[in-house]
Design a protein that fits this description.
The chain is α/β, with parallel strands linked by helices. It folds into two domains: about 130 residues, Rossmann fold (3-Layer(aba) Sandwich); about 130 residues, Rossmann fold, CATH 3.40.50.1980. Helix content is about 45%, strand content about 15%. The protein contains 16 helices and eleven strands. β1 and β2 form a beta hairpin. The longest helix is centred in the first third of the chain and has 28 residues. The protein is globular. Belongs to the bacterial solute-binding protein 8 family.
Length: about 325
């Protein structure tokens, strides 16, 4: 009996040892505890994540284009207004010879010019990391492929070129500033509403015409021409009969004759241009012109810098609203 107890006791020890051995083995197979795990709140960037953060793909008239997500050196000739509205300074600014967009000079005085045809050598020298072109590519010295070989290149559609509010949203997306674009448009809408209310008191139903005089020629703004589109269609200013007669402006802006201009029936007329221009001198010497109601009533206003009035963009529109309202205070 004593031997039996000893054997039974020995068997129990062996079973306990086996149990402990299995328990240790299972413990080693368990998942690591929280202290051993990486912090799940911290994102681990894979190479693909880094690539997604540095580049975005956008659709354009030229097909899908991969552009840098946060470009630092942007060339957007003649679209500098939009960049400024988004808090960006272009790497170079549009120019025709010595002429620049004067209304932007407060922000761009220290930016080098680039000729409006975008010479390839000049584009190469400034080393942009994003190029934005208008849809009429024939205006440029190089082809799309030429510019795309220098830097990622996006071509604005006809709608984006013709409607600055569409354009600012697109460029905002291109350069990672969609929120800034949305905020800018909201602020602009508030400005328009305030100006519209003020003009109801200042003008009521009185009509206003705008004309650019340059090189002895008279360019009367049609309802959809440059700043007139905003003044008539957003601010709700009454359109004179002669302007209505002109209809919608075509891409080419044709001058109007002095004889036809003498039929002006506007209550107010804004003339843009240098007072020394031969066209304004001809008006001063025209008896027919001087007998029109707008002249007789002393309701002709002269503005020498036409640049914001003949451009479309957030900055141009805001400047024009301020100048327009101030004329009638």
């Amino acid at each position: 009996m004593h031997k039996y107890i000893q054997k039974k006791y020995l068997l129990m020890l062996i079973l306990i040892a086996l149990f402990l051995l299995v328990a240790c083995s299972n413990s080693n197979d368990k998942e690591p505890n929280e202290a051993d795990e990486p912090n799940k709140s911290e994102e681990v960037n894979t190479p693909n994540d880094a690539e997604e953060e540095s580049e975005i793909k956008v659709d354009s008239d030229m097909g899908e284009v991969t552009v840098p997500a946060n470009p630092e050196k942007i060339l957007a000739s003649y679209n500098e207004d939009t960049l400024i509205a988004l808090g960006e300074k272009p790497v170079a600014k549009w120019a025709i010879g010595e002429s620049v967009q004067d209304y932007l000079e407060q922000e761009l005085a220290d930016v080098d010019t680039i000729e409006w045809t975008l010479p390839l050598e000049a584009v190469l020298s400034i080393e942009p990391d994003l190029i934005i072109l208008d849809h009429v590519l024939d205006n440029y010295e190089g082809s799309y492929d030429d510019y795309a070989a220098i830097a990622p290149t996006y071509v604005l559609s006809e709608e984006e070129v013709s409607d600055w509010q569409v354009r600012i949203q697109k460029i905002g997306k291109l350069i990672g500033k969609e929120d800034e674009a949305a905020e800018a448009l909201t602020d602009y809408e508030e400005k328009v509403n305030q100006a519209k209310e003020g003009l109801k008191e200042l003008l009521g139903d009185e009509s206003v015409a705008m004309m650019w005089v340059i090189g002895g020629k008279y360019f009367l703004f049609e309802k959809n021409r440059h700043s007139a589109n905003m003044i008539y269609n957003e601010l709700g200013v009454t359109v004179p009969g002669l302007v209505e007669e002109l209809g919608q402006g075509e891409s080419a802006w044709n001058p109007i004759s002095l004889e036809k201009l003498s039929e002006i029936d506007a209550d107010h007329l804004i003339i843009l241009g240098n007072k020394d221009d031969e066209g304004i001198e001809a008006l001063d010497n025209s008896n027919v012109w001087n007998n029109t109601a707008v002249v007789q009533n002393n309701q002709v206003y002269f503005i020498e810098d036409e640049s914001n009035w003949t451009n479309s963009g957030l900055v141009a529109s805001k400047q024009t609203i301020d100048m327009f309202v101030d004329l009638f205070k």
